[in-house]
Design a protein that fits this description.
D-Maltodextrin-Binding Protein, domain 2; alpha+beta; 2 domains
Length: 260
Amino acid sequence: PVIVDNKAGAYEQIAGQAVASAKPDGYTLWLATTGGTVQAPLLKALPYDPLKLTHVGVIAEADAVLAVKNGFPARNVDELIQYAKKSPGEINFGSAGTGAPSHLLLEYVQAVTNTKMTHIPFKSAGDVVRELAGGTIDIAIAVPASAVPLIQDEKFRAIAVTSPERLKALPDVPTLEEGGVKELKGMAVYAFYAILGPAGMPPDVTRTLNDAFSKISQDPEVIQKAEQMNFRAVSGTSAAFTSRIARESRQWRPIAEKIK
C-alpha cells in the first residue's frame, strides 16, 4: 500500500524537507514538480539541495494555456507580442504569486521578445483564472485542468498552448511552435512531475523504483487517465532526470535573478 501524506505549501519546501531528512531506504518519496525542484531553489535558500537528493525519475508532464480576457485585441501570440512592443507596460498579466511557474513563464516571454508587461500576483492559480474570466487582468498562463472548462464556456479565450502538439481538449488552439514568434519556439515543457528520494538511496533501490514507475507510466489505463486530466504520462532514467534539473536550472536562472 502507498500512504499519501500531503505536505503542501512554501513552494513544496515542506514536502521536500520531510523527504530530505528521511531514512534513504526508498520508503519515503517526494512527488515534486518543476517549481519545487528547479524554480524554488533559484528564488530562495532551501534547507536542502534538490540536486543532491536521489532522482528516481520523471513520471508526468503538463502543458499550459496562454489565455486572454474576452475583448482583448490580440487573437494570437504574434499579435500579443506586437501589441506588447507597441505599448510597453500596458498589458497586465496575472500569476499564482511571485516566482510561481505562471509568473516565470511570462517573465521568460518578456525577456526573449524584449517586451514589458505588468505583473499582478495573486494567491493561487484559481484566483488567476477567476480574475481573467472577470476581465480584471488581460492575460495569464493557466493549466488546462482549470482553463479548459472556462474557455469552453467562453469566459476567456485561449490564443496558444505550450505543448508540442495541440491539446485534444482545445483542438483549434495553435501551439507556440505554430506561431510566428521565433523566440518562443522550442520552449521547455511547462511543468514536470517527478519522484525523488532522500540523498544516499542505494542504486538498486532507485532502479527498482524507476522500473516500477516506468511500467505504470506505460499502462494504457494510466495514459488514458492522465490525458483526461490534461497530463502526459512519461518515463525516463534517473540520470536523465538529473540532467533535466541541471539543464532547466540553467534556463530559469537568469529569469529568477531578475525577479528576486
